[in-house]
Write a sequence for this structure.
């Protein structure tokens, strides 16, 4: 029996939906040669990560083992799969492989961060394979909500792994390759060790619907719109953008695309050949001259993002165009949990303008890009893997997917980020744990999620911030009174006196009676002043703020 | 023609779902005698109101006109209708009328704020009426998700107004009075001037389902649970708590209620007679001795609230009880938009424990307490009002409800908070605008939403906070160097030097070359130091923090 082993180690994406990063390794224990599948981001929110620009997986382990890393493979061009490439390539240093459209987006990501674009290599679909140490990796086309998505066929001496990537089983996907069950069955016919599989829609019990079902419904809707219509979807959903544009064209509308991300995406799709036909589009300048009843805008911002085209239209004007009473706005999209407030804000702003809002409440104007539960079952039946490793999901998704697999007689394991799984034997075996977490991009700096920096910001947001300054002379005696400044706190307290005055009085009184032992120790003064300030605030305003004490000594 | 008029003026609840407060007036223009219907709160969120404890409507206008206020009527006991009574009664000073159960809750609210409980008067249902100046007001029973909800029959010389309150058309509501179409038709048979009507579910196109449909499904679910089951719903949904408890009892389970709000609510319901039978409940202490497969917990926290029983169970232990592998947790509730993250957090925590989560995705375990679109139509057909004034909704709900009313041949108006509507004529007529907004309870202090206090807190959360102190001697010369402290900012910048050192160097350099004109002016020093500090931060960390400059002078 060989002492070499095949390992799987998620560093991001297993235990959350977002920031995907999965390591595979083959070789002697702790000397496995490694490949990384996907390198994505996730997005911040005000509740847990205010002010943070992007969230990355913590790649400390991988960076410490970069000498073992052979290559990075990107399954498709969504931000949660490719978004971190430019931010980490320098520390990882391995070649990046992707299909043409994805590679074009990855090169944008590299260029945006001043990284060399040429390390991103374009590869063709299966049966072409790329050698990476002991691995040979092929890109198996599959349908999803972005063109050229691919599952990976990962071969090594321990056997074949199918890494599904994000997928749905769409045989009429509008753009890109249809799911080809014969091809998949053929690739898997000699036995598959493990299927590492997307879990996003494991709770959706009906089979997924094809992208092709959306167009006719949207066309009907456009024909019913008396004035201008604007529609939003994910910029990267090239098929949907095309569906919307073609439905608009059939309904006699001129089409105008708005939002940088959407134009960039369509351009990349045309340049790389994944989009061979697209209705003629007009510029926003030209759109202004088109009668409203003949115009259709397709815009970014389906998740209510404040800076996107939809939010700007909702606030008034974008590229010189405005929505008006009698216009219609279509969300051809689903609201990702957590984004509801932003989306509802836009809906109400449009309502104030007299714009009619249509969303996907009735299920006619959007279909998901992920495989539903019956589709997951069907894929297992096609791939017939020895074991199923659920990924791309929160804990509850992974758990349900593992359970589903067990019920169908397949070995499975619930492996969240940091769980190293040995796939060599007949069953998956947890063989180690690696520390993982989140790294925040905060302005230009990468900080750890647990560094305390963001925690301090959250505390200031909840409690306000009080600053106390005291100056001590050469003899350690207070020079003048304590001085307070505050941010995010009310001016008047319960006693109806200015809060700052009450604070300064209490603190100055304390200084007047403080012992030499206290006054000679910065730590003691700080501690005492903080305690008094918090208590006074609690009495006056019913809140204990964050307190920063600054002691200046003249000595 | 009389110069007296009947006006309607929403101060909260029209343009949002929450903090309901509706004024009606009758009399000569600007001398109308007033009544207030409902006095509720809404809840803060991290995005718009971090650290805020409760949100109230801005009642400045009403307080300025308190001499005209005859009475306050509370339709039902939900927080968004009664939650602000204790906070504003002192400034309004009018008697508060409610039915027995609601009055019991209102008295709790008064007592919680040290206000006199006896100003809350218990009234009986229609045909009893309460005189309040030119008004006579009766409580017309209607079904909702809390017992004893009532529509109001508001009579004055200008005619009869029906204020629906929150309602659904449930003829088998489990607890409380069924909706009685004959009674409503009888009350309305001599003509109704205006129906002021709940708009919450105007986008739900199927008729609402009865509370009675939920019990059998829940019983089946409980029978399928191999181990302990815990279920959560709104504490105030007494009917659902009863439905859950009875289903549990029928399935052979001992019932334990957990969470202060839920116990308080059930006690009030029993004491006021709205709940005449309820399964025997056991204490958490006794529950620990019951075999898990015979136990059912009913707990607070259906919206993921961090301090509620469900969240505490999800984190580990509550009242000595823990959830374990194989247990089941049921959300017999709907997630209010904006609360998704909190609910999902709990779901994943339970998943980590191996607890099976059941929610209302299939629609079997929850029904809404609000009238759906067909129910709104049915109510219009029963009440046959001259006009319909939509309330209790965001702008988009009010707009859709007004449109629906117009389509059915009834006059309507979209009146958001602050819009004064004259109901005297045949059609509603906007006759004025009053300044409205939100008042925050922040700790113990009421602050205005636009005071800038919360805005500063949000800015600190997004940008961090830098404090710069300088000391100037008697000659306005800098004494020592500039001193910086920071909160919520990274320690190292792009140059890999400590950010504070780089800042102090830049700021001290500036002080060294500053002109006398600058050094003698606190404003100028502040302005310059802030500018330099923000630029240095931008260079070093790609972020411009909030900056507080403290200038101390020895003079």
């Amino acid at each position: 029996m060989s002492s070499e082993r095949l390992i799987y180690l998620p560093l991001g994406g297993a235990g959350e939906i977002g920031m995907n990063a999965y390591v595979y390794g083959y070789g002697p224990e702790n000397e496995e040669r490694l490949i990384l599948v996907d390198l994505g981001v996730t997005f911040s929110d005000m509740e847990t990560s205010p002010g943070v620009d992007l969230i990355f997986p913590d790649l400390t382990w991988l960076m410490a083992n970069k000498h073992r890393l052979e290559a990075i493979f990107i399954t498709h061009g969504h931000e949660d799969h490719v978004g971190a490439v430019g931010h980490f390539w320098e520390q990882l240093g391995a070649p990046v492989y992707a299909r043409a459209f994805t590679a074009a987006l990855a090169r944008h990501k590299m260029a945006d961060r001043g990284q060399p674009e040429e390390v991103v290599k374009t590869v063709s679909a299966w049966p072409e394979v790329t050698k990476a140490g002991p691995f040979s990796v092929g890109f198996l086309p599959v349908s999803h909500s972005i063109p050229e998505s691919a599952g990976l066929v990962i071969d090594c001496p321990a056997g074949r792994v199918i890494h599904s990537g994000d997928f749905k089983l769409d045989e009429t996907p509008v753009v890109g390759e249809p799911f080809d069950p014969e091809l998949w069955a053929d690739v898997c016919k000699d036995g598959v060790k493990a299927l590492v599989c997307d879990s996003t829609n494991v709770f959706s019990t009906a089979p997924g619907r094809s992208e092709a079902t959306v167009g006719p419904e949207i066309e009907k809707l456009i024909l019913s719109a008396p004035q201008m219509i604007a529609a939003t979807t994910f910029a990267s959903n090239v098929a949907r953008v095309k569906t919307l544009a073609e439905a608009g064209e059939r309904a006699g509308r001129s089409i105008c695309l708005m939002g940088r991300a959407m134009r960039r995406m369509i351009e990349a799709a045309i340049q790389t050949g994944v989009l061979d036909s697209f209705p003629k589009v007009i510029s926003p300048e030209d759109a202004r001259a088109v009668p409203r009843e003949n115009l259709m805008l397709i815009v970014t911002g389906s998740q209510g993002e404040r800076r996107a085209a939809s939010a700007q239209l909702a606030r008034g004007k974008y590229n010189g165009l405005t929505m008006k009473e009698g216009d219609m706005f279509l969300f051809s999209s689903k609201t990702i949990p957590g984004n509801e407030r932003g989306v509802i804000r836009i809906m109400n702003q449009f309502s104030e303008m007299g714009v009619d809002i249509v969303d996907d409440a009735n299920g006619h104007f959007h279909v998901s890009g992920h495989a539903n539960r019956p589709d997951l079952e069907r894929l297992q039946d096609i791939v017939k893997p020895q074991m199923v490793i659920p990924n791309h999901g929160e804990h509850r998704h992974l758990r349900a997917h593992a359970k589903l697999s067990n019920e169908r007689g397949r070995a499975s394991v619930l492996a969240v980020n940091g769980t190293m799984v040995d796939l060599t034997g007949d069953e998956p075996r947890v063989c180690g744990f690696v520390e993982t977490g989140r790294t925040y991009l905060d302005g230009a700096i990468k900080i750890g999620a647990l560094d305390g920096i963001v925690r301090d910001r959250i505390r200031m947001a909840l409690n306000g911030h009080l600053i106390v300054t005291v100056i001590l002379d050469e003899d350690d005696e207070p020079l003048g009174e304590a001085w307070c400044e505050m941010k995010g706190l009310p001016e008047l307290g319960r006693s109806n006196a200015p809060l700052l005055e009450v604070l300064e009085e209490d603190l100055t009184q304390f200084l007047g009676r403080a012992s030499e032992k206290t006054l000679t120790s910065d730590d003691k003064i700080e501690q005492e002043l903080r305690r008094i300030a918090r208590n006074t605030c609690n009495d006056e305003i019913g809140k204990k703020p964050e307190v920063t004490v600054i002691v200046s000594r003249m000595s």
The first strand of chain A starts at residue 4 and ends at 12. Chain A touches chain B through 64 residues (CB under 8 Å).
